[in-house]
Each structure stands twice: as C-alpha cells, then as structure tokens.
Design goal:
about 325 residues, alpha/beta, GMP Synthetase, Chain A, domain 3, seven-stranded mixed sheet, three-stranded mixed sheet, 10 strands, about 30% helix
C-alpha cells in the first residue's frame, strides 16, 4: 500500500520537497453543470480533536459551534462548500468516545451513521498527543480507500514532533496524511483542494448561496450553549441542553435545561450575572435588534431518558 503524506509548504521546504451519501432533501438537487463534481465528506475522530474548528476554517464561515470541552457537537451538522465546478457537503460529527449515558451512546451512533455512503472521510488525530487506543478503535471502522488522516493542532508542536507523529500514524495504514492547524489555517487550503479533487462527478445538492442546513432556531440554541460552555467553568457541559421554544422574530425564547437544582444556580449566576453574559455573547453573533430571552429549567437526568433526548433531537 502506497502511503502519501501532505505537508504544509513550510514543512516541505525544510524537508527539501516540493509542496505538494445522499442529500438530506432530494428536492434540493438542481441542474448539474457539465463536468460538475460533488460529494459528501465526513469529519470523524475522538472528542475535542478539532473537527468543528476545521470545518469552519475550510468553509470560511462559522456553521458549527466550537469549545474546548469534549462532546460539544451533539448532532450531525452539514456545511456546504460551493464553487462553479464543484460542491462538497461536509458532515461534522460528535466525537466517538466510551459512553457513560444514553446521550453518549446516541452521539456515537450519530457519528457512525454519518459514515454511510460518504465519498471522503477525514479522520482527525492530534499532533500534540499520542495516537492511542481510541484512535485505533475508530480507524478500524474506516474505509482505507476513502479515508484521509488529518494530523491537527500542528501549531502547538515543533516540526520534528510533527514528523514523528506522521511516522506513528503510518501504522494506521491509510494512504494519505495531511498535517494541519485548524486554528491558524496552516495546511487547510491544501487539504481542501485535495478533498475537492477526489469528489466524483455529480449534481449540486444545495443552492449555491447555502452554507449550512442548520435551521435558524437550532443555530440560536447552539450559540447559547456554546457561550454557556465558555462562561460556566464548573463541570456542567454534559448536563446542559438548549432549545428554542418560541420564535416570533426578532423575539426568541431559549430554554436552558440542567439536570439538578444546584446546577440551575450555577447557570444563572450571582444576581443573574452568568445568564446576562451568555445572552450578551450570543446576541453579538445574531442580527442586530434580536430580543433573546433565556430561561433556565430543571429536567432531571434528561441525558439518561429516551423521551427527553427525543424531544431535544439527540
């Protein structure tokens, strides 16, 4: 099996080398330009390896929330990259992990289901940590001929370490390797161009101006959850859920669900300080003039109850 590693130009120069599924709604398919290519690309890996950051970087716009907390992504989010001659539909997925709750099991199921009928799989591993059993477990389920290993977070390590990680990654037996920094953008353009070249001929699945298939109400709820993860420092990430319950634009009501009364006080903060800061941060990413009402409710053990997860769309 021939293995090919693609390095950013800076690394290439030091080494002395030359730089190198089905649509959600078939009614969205439009007329195919002659020679047009298209396809579906899944991003997969352990929690917190940078899948959402990479997707936003490739698209040049924010279509999925990001956080340094594991399991931030809870549903499959599709981002659309369109040029006159090609369209790529990128599918961001939850990180695959050892589940401790029903929510964790459903997140794993969502990630694995996203692999069906994919044209390209981007398997992310970290440059600043060892390639461990979790990575190997995921690698065993991936189709080698369609998988590109992406070594992310190269901005946090030196060049020698990157080379060492590429050597270590070669034991996973994929054909192609791309070192990138999703955070800074280093190497991302080369990865994107390579992915686009691998797509087969096919139609546009989404309108040219569409960047994501995420509904507006879902996006607002996700922005609120993202800011909660940024502001609340206690161990709450897996106990927080958000959902929009009223939408009368520009008035939006968003519920924040926690599992216990003690967590409710943490989310609200002293004299409402946490809730106020979260609302301010979320509104800054929404159109001017929106009225965002945040309400905190206790839904006991929601992440372990099937009906509660169904209501939240997990």
């Amino acid at each position: 099996m021939t293995q090919e590693a693609h390095e950013p130009e800076e690394l290439d120069e030091e080494l002395g080398r030359e730089p190198s599924g089905e649509p959600a709604d078939v009614s969205l398919v439009v007329e195919q330009p002659e020679g047009h290519r298209s396809g579906f690309v899944t991003l997969i890996g352990r929690p917190n390896v940078g899948k959402s950051t990479l997707l936003n970087q490739m698209l040049g716009t924010k279509v999925t929330i990001v956080s340094d907390k594991p399991q931030t992504t809870r549903t499959e989010v599709r981002g659309v990259f369109t040029r006159p001659d090609v369209q790529a539909v990128f599918c961001d997925t939850p990180g695959i992990h050892k589940p401790r709750t029903l929510l964790g099991q459903r997140l794993n199921d969502t990630a694995r289901a996203a692999l069906a009928d994919m044209d390209v799989v981007l398997f992310l591993v970290e440059a600043d940590g060892p390639i461990g059993r979790g990575d190997r477990f995921i690698a065993e389920s991936l189709p080698p001929e369609r998988t590109i290993l992406v070594l992310n977070k190269i901005d946090s390590v030196g060049r020698d370490h990157v080379i060492g990680q590429l050597v270590a990654a070669s034991e996973l037996e994929f054909d192609e390797y791309f070192p990138v920094s999703a955070k800074t953008g280093r190497g991302v353009d080369a990865l994107l161009e390579h992915v686009l070249e691998r797509l087969p001929e096919g139609p546009r699945f989404y309108p040219e101006e569409m960047a994501s298939d995420v509904p507006e109400a879902f996006w607002v709820a996700e922005l609120v959850r993202e800011q909660l993860l940024a502001v609340v420092r206690e161990e709450l990430p897996h106990s927080i859920a958000t959902r929009v319950t009223e939408w009368d634009w520009p008035r939006v009501r968003c519920e924040i669900l926690v599992e216990r009364d003690s967590q409710k006080g943490i989310v609200i903060g002293r004299k409402g300080s946490v809730l106020k800061e979260v609302g301010t941060r979320a509104r800054a990413q929404l159109p001017e003039g929106v009225f965002l009402e945040l309400v905190v409710k206790v839904d006991k053990d929601w992440q372990r109850r099937p009906k509660a997860l169904d209501r939240l769309g997990y």
